[in-house]
Amino acid sequence: MKATFGAGCFWHVEDLLNKTKGVKSTKVGYIGGKLPNPTYEEVCADKTGHAEAVEVEYDPDEISYKELLDVFWNNHNPTTLNRQGPDVGNQYRSAIFIHDEEQKKIAEKSKQDLEKSGKFDDPIVTEIVPAPTFYKAEEYHQKYFKKHGFS
After folding, report:
1. Cβ neighbourhood burial of 10 (10 Å; 0-12, 13-18, 19+)
2. Structural element, H or E, at residue 14
């Protein structure tokens, strides 16, 4: 099964998801913009409208989509619009890119439950949108933390 999340800089998100039981593989890339085959430089310059994102292949017998959403929600701030930590821009937006109606239903309920929980004082700004074409980022971005000894 496939899931796709945008939660700020994709390096950290990928490393976190790679360490999650039931996740079989990850790749970082760009999604949700207007330019085909964007480059990192174009995305960072906010010229394409893409978000940095992680595409996850997971085994639903080992981890549910809801559990993946829990990892997503608990590891970034979904109340900051177009910003995560020091990273600012549309490319760092909080987004759940859904692949089917079941994911949409689960993601929307998960977001509603989080809003009702009172965990955050500010409103959750995370987008829940259909997953358009995912463009794999340049190879040097794949498993970046692991390659550079941060993992």
Report:
1. buried
2. helix 10-18
Cα–Cα dist 54/9, whole Å: 10
What are the tens digits of pLDDT across the range 42-98?
A: 999 988 999 999 999 999 999 999 999 999 999 999 999 999 999 999 999 999 999
Residues carrying an active site annotation: 9
Tokens of 45: 């310059």
136, two tokens: 């794999």
pLDDT of residue 34: 94
Name the 3-class secondary structure at 101: helix
Q: Are 18 and 26 in contact (CB under 8 A)?
A: yes
Compute the C-alpha angle 97/100/104, nearest 5°: 65
Q: Per the structure block, which two tokens stand in for 141?
A: 């971005």
Convert the pLDDT of each residue in 89-113 to its tens digit.
999 999 999 999 999 999 999 999 9
Angle at 124 between CA 27 and CA 115, to 5 degrees: 115
Q: Is the pTM of this model over 0.90?
A: yes
